[in-house]
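Ribosomal RNA small subunit methyltransferase H
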Amino acid sequence: MLEETVGALNVDVNPNGNYIDATLGGAGHSRLLLSRLGPEGHLYSFDQDKVAIDNAISKGLDNRWTLIHDNFANLAEHGLPSIDGILYDLGVSSPQFDVAERGFSYKLDSKLDMRMDQSTSLTAYEIVNTYPFNNLMRIFSRYGEEPFSKQIARKIERVREIKPIETTTELADLIKSALPQKALKKKGHPAKRVFQALRIEVNDELGSLEKSLNSAIGMLSPGGRIAVISFQSLEDRIVKRIFKENSEVNVPHGLPMIPDEMKAKLKVIVRKPILASESELEINNRAHSAKLRVAERT
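Structure:
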């Protein structure tokens, strides 16, 4: 959803403004955004994955582009100027999924890792092998919406008493063995929900997203826009809720004027999320669950 997301920021209205790509990844959004900036415009691109930063540097920068190696939860801590547009492309980037050693994929054999920032200490291996049964069950249920969380957590508990669970394929096979036949026959990989839950826990994805969105709203100039692509329901609910909370005004009856602190901070641009086009789905199957939401600073 490259064109839709960058287009939603209305860069043509203020090509010499300041913009943020909160999720650099493979730099596709950043480079398209740069191509639409004027000579005085500036783009700040964040990523907690040093590999993404290094890849962008290796392909060339210009003086309108600043790369920041940090979690997007810390947007407000870098002393940036007022921002005219910010975009998020949430979840794991394709390079992270496709490199087995990162441990994100249940299809590629690797040590359990799932860290987006390789300098942090918590890994999926530690969670799987040390978290108590109740914590595992809570994570799988809350972050993966896995209906068989209890059975999977119990199976993990039994297996790790014998030997540690070391790899992605080991864990994926264990998950399959814990599920009833009716669940195994359903569409989609049976380990998908648990792997999602582990990834979210390792990287504190939902907490970081909430903090980042609230910071972004405060950093936007009037008329500045925020565009967010999410790929799973938990992220989308957070985006929808924060946009809703900041676009509604609950004014006491009879109040003659609305104080500034009670005015809506946002105007929601699209009431229903924008979905990937059929043409994009033909070339990018990962976009089938993508939802784009857009709001504007009042």
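Residues 100-203 form a domain with the DNA polymerase; domain 1 fold (CATH 1.10.150.170).
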